[in-house]
């Protein structure tokens, strides 16, 4: 069975994103937690802080989610004014100074920021060209945009696991693919999309291998896609439980279950006028 691309509206539906998908930080935290078992460990907030070394003034974290990066920037760079923003009011929780805002229409004046962060979120944006234009619009002439996403090759083992488990549940050799989030904005596609506004784009690749000896982190990651459960074409909970069994079988046979990762951070500057 050939994998079909995820329809855009499943990934960009603002109502779904602000409620079922990111109404709280639960599902995002489950996906983030899987990286505890990655080698090498990449300190993503630390990398972002390092890229902000020469930045002064205000920084917006657009699509800030549960505020993981906001907290780190505020801790390491108290001299910066950090503006947390997200389309979901619920996930913002108690993040100080957070506002509900859409990257496609930022409530920020032209040239007001030293930097803007758009981390693992542009694949959720319906009009990516407009979003990228907005990221450039709000930057001062010497400002930077820091963007992150995953490669087309990222975590293919999890996709294979899901389709095998779905096939087992459906009684066919291989089931349908699950919803793909980053497929709309991959590490390979990002430079061309960002290049419409930014002339200087530097990519920091972040490869690694996750290895677990307990199925739970993998199961939690798969279960974090619950917001799209009715779009998977398979009984969601039964597939999750079958995936758990398959991971445990691999762990018992091989001593661990391995997942190959490739994400990346793109540091972007506008052309000098």
UniProtKB/TrEMBL annotation:
What would you give as a GO molecular function for this chain, any one? S-adenosylmethionine-dependent methyltransferase activity
Coiled-coil ranges (or none): none
Q: Is Methyltransferase among this UniProt entry's keywords?
A: yes
Q: Which UniProt keywords apply?
A: Methyltransferase, Transferase
Give me the segments passing through the membrane: none
The Methyltransferase type domain, residue ranges: 61-147
Q: Note the SUPFAM superfamilies from the entry.
A: S-adenosyl-L-methionine-dependent methyltransferases
Q: Which Gene3D superfamilies match?
A: Vaccinia Virus protein VP39
Keyword Transferase set for record: yes
The Gene Ontology biological process annotation of the record reads: methylation
**Superkingdom of the organism of origin:** Bacteria
> Mind telling me what this protein is named?
Class I SAM-dependent methyltransferase
Write the lineage as a comma-separated list.
Bacteria, Bacillati, Actinomycetota, Actinomycetes, Kitasatosporales
